[in-house]
Amino acid sequence: MRHRSAWTAAAVLAALLVVPAAPSHAAACGTGNAALNRPATASSTENAGTPASAAFDGDTGTRWSSAFSDPQWIQVDLGAAKPICKVVLTWEAAYGRSFQIQTSNDGSTWTPIYTTSTATGGTQSLDVTGTGRYVRMYGTARGTGYGYSLWEFAVHVESGDEPPPVGGGDLGPNVHVFDPSMPSSTIQSRLDQIFRQQESAQFGTGRHAVFFKPGTYSGLNAQLGFYTSVHGLGRNPDDVTINGDITVDAGWFNGNATQNFWRSAENLAVVPVNGTNRWAVSQAAPFRRMHVRGGLNLAPTGYGWASGGYIADSKIDGTVGPYSQQQWYTRDSSVGGWLNGVWNMVFSGVEGSPGNTFPDPPYTALNTTPISREKPYIYLEGGEYRVFLPAKRTNARGTSWANGPTPGTSLPLSRFYVAKPGDSAARINAALAQGLHLLLTPGIYRVDQPIAVNRPGTVVLGLGLATIIPDNGVTALKVADVDGVRLASFLVDAGPVNSPALVEIGPAGSAADHAADPTTVQDVFIRIGGAGPGKATTSMVVNSDDVIIDHTWIWRADHGEGVGWETNRADYGLVVNGDDVLATGLFVEHFNKYDVQWFGERGRTIFFQNEKAYDAPNQAAIQNGPIQGYAAYRVADSVNTHEGWGLGSYCYYNVDPTIRQHHGFQAPVKPGVRFHHLLVVSLGGHGQYNHVINDTGAPTSRTSTIPSVVVSYP
């Protein structure tokens, strides 16, 4: 037995010695869509406008839909048998409840690789294992009375060791580029098509960026719906002129513009048809680097409610008419006149601003903006796309392009990793680690690890409100404590598993001086709930010093899907730990506890808009120790120097209108802590404020929507 055991051990050792070495890297699931623009067929189509090919064209604005019966199928030919690792189905409202994902090598004999009878629609990312040339969705039970309808059907295959990311590339199917040589009717038709898809798609999945090459366009009305941005591709706004209108109105919501969110107009000139352009928006709808050769109307047709808004680096030759706008912030611009104000109109560095007369009229005006740096933007130089990086300005007044081209530097697109929906966080981080910047093309990006921005001067720029959703409770994006990072133009949507934070600027304990080259956070919007259940303890944490937060809307949803006091729980909106942080255009709303907490020294805020959480179930739910309610904006007791201008907080406790909020603002009483032009408002008498700041300021009216104000504090 001893001899046999020794022989067996030797044999085993010999066998081990001849086993081939394992590959250094396991096969990875590729980020590219192997089904993109491949031949497709279906069991039926609803009509000629919904062909099978529309589910494989990469355009989330086109779709396949079937006849209204079961069963139905749609399939794609990959061209050769491939190892399939993931299928992503983006359903329209008409979805499949029971279906299989099947593969075949001959298009005749099918093998199921995924089966469900409990699907609920939306976007389904399905990890699968199978091989086949053909892939199909075979539906046996519809989720609605309509047919099966897919915006997109993506197939991912194993790629082995993926090649390293490279810079440049096309901008994807949802970036629409127009040229002055194109017929106006062709451009208008496409603009209208996008608007029909996006007009009321408040929580939809479509994302679109519209670009106009330099030149003059006539006879256009670009109506902008949700998740749509329109840009000029010139170096300066007047390089692109539209004889027509760039319009936002509120017909989809019966003339109420308070939900006209998530859209933008940037870097072009407009000559309005009737002399006045209409831009009736609320939060998260920036108007940047625009030249309006006429007037600008900020109210919807019929002058219904509106709750905006933000203008920067723009010139309006005529008068700006806010009319029904409750509040507005305008920075580093020029206006021909300003008609009126409702509660809180704030200006910094604006030529032609109406003066500093708060509260009657309710104007707050700073002669200059202490520090500003305009947002990066794409432009054309010859036939090449480049990204321009405007220079920092101090004590700015008027537009950056008033006396010639905006100062700054530019980067070729080849220096950017041009990400597409479906790219993993690992691949994006590999690109960033290689020294590439990041351009997020329109779409939705799910990340299972934080996007890690570790290199000084990195640019992260989104197009068409590109949206990042963290999975499994991770932080969506983290920035190291480095100089000069620029984050711009994207939306972070909380996932259903609680994230401790969604965006983190600098790790805890950051202390480096970035005054010469600050990090900027511009048009970065955060949403918790609304598109579905989402949770985050804190939405944005700023640990680095000298950060400029230039226009953000951080929103715990008060309507949409996945909304409830605990369903989309989010205790804090913005937490600032860094010193010398400046916020210009700060919108933070509806958090379960403090909307803003400021712990850093020498912080400054120019314009703040807030609503307390509507859905607090009772007084006890918001009791803050001995204090009734959590302040909308709290400066920590340890802070010695802080200053704010033009800050407003509103309450609308519609679940329990008897709730009282002790104050909207809380701050230590110290000589270096100063506030100018504060207000609180009870909307329709639903809840009340006892004071404006600390124990100062009159209580709000029990019946009328009239602000209580404090002109200066202390």
UniProtKB/TrEMBL annotation:
UniProt keyword list: Signal
Superkingdom field: Bacteria
Annotated InterPro entries: FA58C, Galactose-bd-like_sf, Pectin_lyas_fold, Pectin_lyase_fold/virulence, SACTE_4363
Stored Pfam families: F5_F8_type_C
Coiled-coil segments: none
Residue span, F5/8 type C domain: 24-158
Leader peptide range in chain numbering: 1-26
UniProt cross-references to CDD domains, sorted A to Z: GH55_SacteLam55A-like
Name of the molecule in the record: F5/8 type C domain-containing protein
